[in-house]
Amino acid sequence: GKGMAVLTSGGDSQGMNAAVRAVVRVGIYLGCKVHFIREGYQGLVDGGEHIQEASWGSVSGIIHKGGTVIGSARCKDFMTREGRLKGAKNLIDRGITNLVVIGGDGSLTGANLFRQEWPSILEELLKLERITAEQKAKFSHLNIVGMVGSIDNDFCGTDMTIGTDSALHRIIDCIDAIVSTAYSHQRTFILEVMGRHCGYLALVGALTSEADFVFVPEDPPPVDWQKKLCDKLEQERAQGQRLNIIIVAEGAIDRDGNPVTAEQVKQVVVDNLQQDTRITVLGHVQRGGSPSAFDRILGCRMGAEAVMALMDATPESEACVVSLDGNQAVRVPLMACVEKTKAVAKAMAEKQWELAVQLRGRS
Ligand code: F6P
């Protein structure tokens, strides 16, 4: 059977374990020898006990767990050529030429670079006498399939990344909890939610909790946002509301591209309306805890499809990422998605807000 390995890289997310489990079990079912690579790319570079053969039973009882049981890391060594040489040698020694990478766009871009470099890596390893000519001939192609694990939903090419749904559940649980105490004291709460440069969690969190105002990076507020915000809060109170909720994405910016922070928003509310105002930063609570049913199934479906994609891979085929499109698990070219994701960042940097929203919308 084929030699296969799975690793999780970058920030963890709920549902990664379901994906790992599916890769292992579908791989074994199809006769492959499947390995875990622990601690992300660092484990690939370090080798040794970080790379272990997986068994059917080794992925029992993990589908309900948050995070990733095989560990994750943001790895600097893999960004160097020497790191990638070591990683390749570790794979070849174990007969692995099929790799599943679960991570964000940075991790998947790294995977693609590794694959493109593979022929020259083999050349160099042979010259350095770290592999034999026989090994070079036998392991001449590296197949890579990606899956996007991230709570941010910031990857263009998939409707939902693995972890987003669970993070949203956690966010709305937190907002509901805040609402009850805010009600008692007639307070205004400003909640900072994660998402890096993506406003998805903030926007959907706001819509599903009846928040009064939301700040997202892709569509910064109007230049006179301070007045608009205060008018809206006053109007809500005039209509009998006892509280106000404002959601600020951690990456929120104004139309000049300067950060809009929860502190700044609080100052505006306190100075203009003298409301009793508090800030809650939800932080890593959003990334922890058990995965939702949606993320468990998403991980299972994507993991299974990733293995199928590796079974179909030929030396000519492009590296792909398994994505969700209209509730179907499909394969899309990895680099096209990475490019599109970069285009969103570029549009935001150039303050082309309409384009940024449009590109995100089509993700
Ligand atoms: O990408 C996931 C994410 O949780 C972002 O929402 C956030 O900006 C970042 O990771 C936090 O990174 P760290 O866990 O390294 O603090």
Automatic annotation (TrEMBL):
<feature type="binding site">
    <location>
        <position position="105"/>
    </location>
    <ligand>
        <name>Mg(2+)</name>
    </ligand>
</feature>
<comment type="similarity">
    <text>Belongs to the phosphofructokinase type A (PFKA) family. ATP-dependent PFK group I subfamily. Eukaryotic two domain clade "E" sub-subfamily.</text>
</comment>
<feature type="binding site" description="in other chain">
    <location>
        <begin position="150"/>
        <end position="152"/>
    </location>
    <ligand>
        <name>substrate</name>
    </ligand>
</feature>
<feature type="binding site" description="in other chain">
    <location>
        <begin position="284"/>
        <end position="287"/>
    </location>
    <ligand>
        <name>substrate</name>
    </ligand>
</feature>
<feature type="region of interest" description="N-terminal catalytic PFK domain 1">
    <location>
        <begin position="1"/>
        <end position="363"/>
    </location>
</feature>
<comment type="similarity">
    <text>Belongs to the phosphofructokinase type A (PFKA) family. ATP-dependent PFK group I subfamily. Eukaryotic two domain clade 'E' sub-subfamily.</text>
</comment>
<feature type="binding site" description="in other chain">
    <location>
        <position position="250"/>
    </location>
    <ligand>
        <name>substrate</name>
    </ligand>
</feature>
<feature type="domain" description="Phosphofructokinase">
    <location>
        <begin position="4"/>
        <end position="309"/>
    </location>
</feature>
<protein>
    <recommendedName>
        <fullName>ATP-dependent 6-phosphofructokinase</fullName>
    </recommendedName>
</protein>
<feature type="binding site">
    <location>
        <position position="278"/>
    </location>
    <ligand>
        <name>substrate</name>
    </ligand>
</feature>
<comment type="subunit">
    <text>Homotetramer.</text>
</comment>
<feature type="active site" description="Proton acceptor">
    <location>
        <position position="152"/>
    </location>
</feature>
<feature type="binding site">
    <location>
        <begin position="104"/>
        <end position="107"/>
    </location>
    <ligand>
        <name>ATP</name>
    </ligand>
</feature>
<feature type="binding site">
    <location>
        <position position="187"/>
    </location>
    <ligand>
        <name>substrate</name>
    </ligand>
</feature>
<feature type="binding site">
    <location>
        <position position="11"/>
    </location>
    <ligand>
        <name>ATP</name>
    </ligand>
</feature>
<comment type="function">
    <text>Catalyzes the phosphorylation of D-fructose 6-phosphate to fructose 1,6-bisphosphate by ATP, the first committing step of glycolysis.</text>
</comment>
<feature type="binding site">
    <location>
        <begin position="74"/>
        <end position="75"/>
    </location>
    <ligand>
        <name>ATP</name>
    </ligand>
</feature>
<feature type="binding site" description="in other chain">
    <location>
        <begin position="194"/>
        <end position="196"/>
    </location>
    <ligand>
        <name>substrate</name>
    </ligand>
</feature>
